[in-house]
C-alpha cells in the first residue's frame, strides 16, 4: 500500500495509531486483529501498528547478533560490514583525538593522574577496531602533559558471546589485557546502570569514576532502536510501523538472517503532542526521564524550525484542530516543501545518557556512522529506509544527537560532507561538580543550533577541537575509504603503470600499515618483491611486510599472513616468512600450499628436521583433501546434483602435489646423511659436537651448508619443478 494512501486514511487525532496491521494473520496463533480490514490476505503479521522503537525489528536484530556472535563478521555468508571504520588508519586518527582530549584535561587541571581515564567502546563487534586503536596507542610516548598509561580501554557488547570471542583472542587482544590496558564488560545501553569489568572486577558507577570518560562507537547508532517523526504543514506527527512476512504462520521472530530478509515493513502516521514523548510513551521516559525531556526539547526544535521555514516559504499550515484529517498536497518543488521527515535515535541517546550518568556528567564521544549531520537534509516526505545486510540499519541522525548534547550545555562538532555516506562526530559534556544536576535538567530556549560558536568544541577542548577537525574534514574515514578503493580498482586494470617501491611504501605508511591494504595490493607487491632491487628498496619492502604482519587481526577469510609470507620469502627474509606461514596455519585451515611454502622457508634457514616434518604434514593434508574430494564427488553423484557445487575445503586446487613428494625424498636423504655424519663424528673419541647440530640437528639462518655434506640449491632442489633462484611460492589456489 502506498504511503500516501495510508496517510490519507490515517486519523489526525492525538490518540494512538490504529491497531490493525497491513498483514493478514495466517492462523489463530498470529495477532488478534480484524482480518476483514486488512489489505494483504497472504501475508503473516508479526505485530500491529507500533512506534518504531518498539517494533519487533529490534528483537530480530538482537537475536541475530546473539546467535551469530563472532561469525557475524567472519562468515562469508553472514558478514556484517566493518572495514570502513575498523581499519588501522581510522583507529589511529581516533587515538590522536583521544590523546588531544587527555592533554586538554591535564592542562585544565581536570585529570586525576592517580586514576584511569576509562574509554568505553560500545558494540565492540569483531574487536578489530579496539586492536588497531590499542596498537596505535602503544606507539605513543609519554611527554609533559600526557602519559599513555592514563587510559584504560573497555570493550563492551550486549551479548556475552562476543565477550567470549574477545577473550579467546590471546595472540592479539590478550597481550593488551595482560598489560593492563584492556578489559571487557557486558553493557546494554537501554538498561545498564553500571559497568562491571570482567577481568579486573572493577565496577564503574556514578560517583566512583574520578575522571571524565570517553565513549567510542562506529556503526552502532544506526543499529539501535529509533523513532521516526515528521513535521507536516506545522504539525508534528509520528511514523508508526508494522512488520510481516510472506510465509504462512511465521509469527515467531528468528535470528536467522534469511528470516530478516523476508520481513517487510509498512508505515503509517499519527499526530503527536510534544508532551507525549517520554511522558505518555513508556519507552525512554520511564527509565531515563532526563534523556526523554531533552529529546522532547529536540523535537520542539525540529517542529518550531521546520514550521517557521514552511511559513516563510508560503506553505499553508494545517489548522490546529485535533479532528482535522491529514491532507497531502503535491510538493510544489524541491526547495519549497510541506514536510520534513527525521529519525530520533532514541536508543543511542538513552545509551549515551547511561554513560553520562556513570561519568557523572563528564563524557567525550567519538563516533562514525552512515547518516546526516544537517537539519536541512530532512526535507521531503519519505519513510526511513531499512537497509538489510545480514542485519539491518537505519540512517543515523547525528544532527539530533548534537542538539541533544547542546540542550544540556554540551558541545558538538560533526563532519559536513554532503557527498559522504559516512559521517564522524565528536560530542563533549564537561560538568562542574556543583552544577551537574541543575544543568542536566536545564532546557535552553528553541531554536538552538549545534553549529553555534557558543557550543563549539574548540572553546571547551582546544586540542581536541583542532585534532578532530582534521579527522572530520580532511583526512577522515571517508577519504581513506575512497583512496583505498582506488588502489583496489588499480589491481584489476592491467594497463595501469606499475607502482614504485617508494610510492607503495608511502601508501602503506599513510594507511598505518593496514594489513588489508596488503591483500588489496598483493599482486603489485608480489611482482615488486620478485624484481631485482637494491638493498635500500629491499629493506623498505621488508619493513612494510613485517609491520603489516605484526598488525594482523583476523576477521574475514582473507589470508593476509599467507600473502605476506610469499612476499617475505621473495625478499629473502626467511625468518619472517616462517612466522607469516605459521600465523596463517594458526588462524586459517591447514592447506598444503601453506605447509609447502613453510617447509621451503625452513629449509632456507637450515632447519632440515623441521622442514621434513612440515613436508610430511603437507603430504598428509594433501592426501586427506584428495580423499575428501573423491568422497564429495561420490556423494554428489548419489544425489545427482550439479558437480560444480562448492563443498567447503574440497574445491581449492593444489597445483604442487608432486612437488611435495620431490621435497620429501630430498629432505629424507639429506636428514639421513646429516644423521650419519653426526653418528660418525660421535664415534671418534676426539670429536667435538657442533653446537649448531647437537640435540636438535637444526641450524640457524645461513647454517645449512655447514650442517649438510654438500650445499643445496638456492631456493629448491634441482629436481623440483620450475624452481628458480628467487621463486615466488605458489598461490594457494586459483
Automatic annotation (TrEMBL):
Localisation: Mitochondrion
Reaction(s) the record says it catalyses: L-arginyl-[protein] + 2 S-adenosyl-L-methionine = N(omega),N(omega)'-dimethyl-L-arginyl-[protein] + 2 S-adenosyl-L-homocysteine + 2 H(+)
Low complexity: compositionally biased ranges: 703-726
Region entry Disordered, spans: 630-653, 676-734
The enzyme's E.C. designation: 2.1.1.320
UniProt main location, coarse: mitochondrion
Keywords in alphabetical order: Methyltransferase, Mitochondrion, TPR repeat, Transferase
TPR repeat residue intervals: 592-625
Keyword S-adenosyl-L-methionine attached: no
Protein's name in the database: type II protein arginine methyltransferase
Amino acid at each position: 500500500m502506498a504511503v500516501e494512501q495510508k496517510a490519507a486514511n490515517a486519523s489526525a487525532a492525538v490518540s494512538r495509531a490504529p491497531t490493525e496491521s497491513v498483514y493478514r494473520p495466517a492462523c489463530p496463533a498470529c495477532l488478534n486483529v480484524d482480518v476483514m480490514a486488512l489489505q494483504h490476505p497472504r501475508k503473516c503479521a508479526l505485530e500491529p501498528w507500533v512506534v518504531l522503537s518498539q517494533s519487533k525489528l529490534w528483537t530480530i536484530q538482537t537475536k541475530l547478533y546473539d546467535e551469530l556472535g563472532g561469525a557475524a563478521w567472519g562468515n562469508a555468508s553472514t558478514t556484517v560490514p566493518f572495514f570502513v571504520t575498523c581499519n588501522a588508519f581510522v583507529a589511529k586518527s581516533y587515538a590522536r583525538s583521544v590523546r588531544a582530549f587527555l592533554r586538554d584535561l591535564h592542562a585544565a587541571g581536570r585529570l586525576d593522574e592517580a586514576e584511569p581515564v576509562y574509554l568505553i567502546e560500545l558494540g565492540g563487534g569483531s574487536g578489530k577496531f579496539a586492536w588497531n586503536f590499542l596498537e596505535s596507542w602503544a606507539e605513543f610516548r609519554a611527554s609533559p602533559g600526557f602519559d599513555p598509561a592514563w587510559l584504560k580501554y573497555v570493550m563492551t557488547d550486549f551479548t556475552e558471546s562476543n565477550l567470549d570471542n574477545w577473550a579467546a583472542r590471546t595472540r592479539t587482544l590478550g597481550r593488551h589485557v595482560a598489560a593492563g590496558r584492556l578489559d571487557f564488560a557486558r553493557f546494554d545501553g537501554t538498561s545498564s546502570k553500571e559497568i562491571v569489568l570482567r577481568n579486573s572486577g572493577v565496577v564503574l558507577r556514578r560517583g566512583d569514576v574520578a575522571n571524565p570518560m570517553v565513549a567510542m562507537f562506529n556503526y552502532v547508532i544506526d543499529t539501535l532502536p529509533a523513532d521516526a517523526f515528521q513535521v507536516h504543514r506545522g504539525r508534528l506527527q509520528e511514523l508508526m510501523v508494522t512488520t510481516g512476512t510472506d510465509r504462512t504462520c511465521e509469527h515467531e521472530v528468528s535470528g536467522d538472517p534469511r528470516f530478516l530478509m523476508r520481513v517487510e515493513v509498512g508505515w503509517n502516521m499519527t499526530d503527536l503532542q510534544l508532551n507525549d514523548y517520554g511522558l505518555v510513551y513508556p519507552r525512554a521516559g520511564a527509565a531515563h526521564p532526563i534523556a526523554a525531556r531533552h529529546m522532547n526539547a529536540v523535537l520542539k526544535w525540529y517542529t518550531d524550525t521546520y514550521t517557521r521555514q514552511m511559513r516563510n516559504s508560503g506553505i499553508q499550515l494545517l489548522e490546529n484542530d485535533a479532528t482535522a484529517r491529514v491532507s497531502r498536497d503535491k510538493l510544489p518543488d524541491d526547495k519549497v516543501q510541506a514536510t520534513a521527515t527525521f529519525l530520533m535515535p532514541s536508543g543511542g541517546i538513552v545509551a549515551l545518557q547511561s554513560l553520562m550518568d556513570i561519568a557523572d556528567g563528564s563524557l567525550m564521544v567519538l563516533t562514525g556512522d552512515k547518516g546526516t549531520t544537517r537539519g536541512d537534509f530532512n526535507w521531503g516526505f519519505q519513510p526511513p529506509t531499512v537497509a538489510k545486510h545480514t542485519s539491518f540499519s537505519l540512517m543515523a541522525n547525528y544532527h539530533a544527537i548534537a542538539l541533544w548534547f547542546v540542550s544540556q550545555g554540551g558541545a558538538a562538532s560533526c563532519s559536513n560532507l554532503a557527498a559522504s555516506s559516512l559521517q564522524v562526530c565528536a560530542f563533549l559534556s564537561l560538568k562542574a561538580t556543583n552544577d551537574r544536576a541543575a544543568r542536566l535538567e536545564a532546557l535552553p530556549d528553541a531554536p538552538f543550533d549545534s553549529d553555534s560558536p557558543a557550543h563549539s568544541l574548540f572553546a571547551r577542548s582546544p586540542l581536541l577541537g583542532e585534532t578532530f577537525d582534521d579527522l572530520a574534514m580532511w583526512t577522515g574515514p571517508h577519504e581513506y575509504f575512497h583512496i583505498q578503493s582506488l588502489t583496489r580498482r588499480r589491481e584489476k586494470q592491467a594497463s595501469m603503470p606499475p607502482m614504485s617501491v617508494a610510492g607503495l611504501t608511502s601508501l602503506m605508511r599513510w594507511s598505518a600499515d593496514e594489513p588489508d591494504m596488503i591483500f588489496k595490493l598483493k599482486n603489485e607487491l608480489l611482482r615488486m618483491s620478485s624484481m631485482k632491487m637494491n638493498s635500500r628498496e629491499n629493506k623498505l619492502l621488508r619493513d612494510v611486510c613485517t609491520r603489516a604482519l605484526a598488525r594482523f587481526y583476523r576477521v574475514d577469510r582473507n589470508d593476509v599472513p599467507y600473502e605476506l609470507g610469499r612476499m617475505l620469502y621473495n625478499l629473502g627474509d626467511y625468518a619472517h616468512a616462517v612466522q607469516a606461514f605459521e600465523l596463517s596455519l594458526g588462524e586459517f585451515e591447514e592447506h598444503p600450499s601453506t605447509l609447502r611454502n613453510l617447509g621451503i622457508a625452513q629449509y632456507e634457514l637450515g632447519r632440515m628436521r623441521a622442514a621434513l616434518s612440515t613436508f610430511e604434514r603437507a603430504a598428509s593434508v594433501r592426501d586427506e583433501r584428495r580423499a575428501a574430494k573423491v568422497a564429495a564427488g561420490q556423494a554428489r553423484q548419489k544425489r545427482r546434483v550439479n558437480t560444480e557445487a562448492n563443498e567447503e575445503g574440497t574445491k581449492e586446487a593444489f597445483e604442487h602435489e608432486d612437488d611435495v613428494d620431490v621435497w620429501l625424498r630430498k629432505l629424507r636423504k639429506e636428514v639421513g646423511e646429516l644423521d650419519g655424519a653426526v653418528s660418525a663424528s660421535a664415534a671418534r673419541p676426539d670429536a667435538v659436537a657442533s653446537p649448531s647440530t647437537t640435540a636438535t640437528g637444526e641450524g640457524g639462518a645461513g647454517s645449512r651448508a655447514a650442517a649438510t655434506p654438500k650445499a643445496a640449491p638456492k631456493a629448491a632442489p634441482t629436481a623440483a619443478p620450475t624452481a628458480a633462484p628467487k621463486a615466488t611460492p605458489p598461490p594457494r589456489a586459483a
